[in-house]
Design goal:
Elements (H helix, E strand, L loop, with lengths): L3 E4 L2 E3 L5 E7 L8 E7 L6 E6 L5 E3 L7 E6 L4 E6 L8 E8 L8 E2 L3 E5 L2
Parallel strand pairs: 2-11
Antiparallel strand pairs: 1-3, 3-8, 4-5, 4-9, 5-6, 7-8, 9-10, 9-11
Length: 118
């Protein structure tokens, strides 16, 4: 069982930055793929960024060049650094984890609200 707790959301002006954190319980963090999803009102949940146990990363087109996902296996934490934020980035951001062999996202956090507005 893995528990995920997100933090770092809030209100930020367009062009600003936020760093989201997701702390995971359990001893198998380093073997999990970790992802950040978001869901805006009236829209489907979408994958923003992911990082594998092998340190490879992938990003949604909307996040490339602005967002950076990273992980600290010693702290069981994954981060999402978000720069140059836009109003369309407003959403609830969720952390997700999946383990071997399928790496299907099985565990989810409760979400943290990010609002980009002037």
């Amino acid at each position: 069982q893995v528990q995920l707790v997100e933090s770092g959301g809030g209100l930020v002006q367009p062009g600003g930055s936020l760093r989201l954190s997701c702390a995971a319980s359990g001893s198998r963090f380093s073997t999990n793929v970790m992802g950040w999803y978001r869901q805006a009102p009236g829209k489907q949940r979408e994958l923003v960024a992911a990082i594998t146990p092998f340190w490879t990363t992938n990003y949604a087109d909307s996040a490339k060049s602005r967002f950076t996902i990273s992980r600290d296996n010693a702290k069981n934490t994954v981060y999402l650094q978000m720069n140059s934020l836009k109003p369309e980035d407003t959403a609830v951001y969720y952390c997700a984890a999946g383990g071997p062999p399928t790496y299907e996202y099985t565990y989810w956090g409760q979400g943290t609200q990010v609002t980009v507005s002037s």
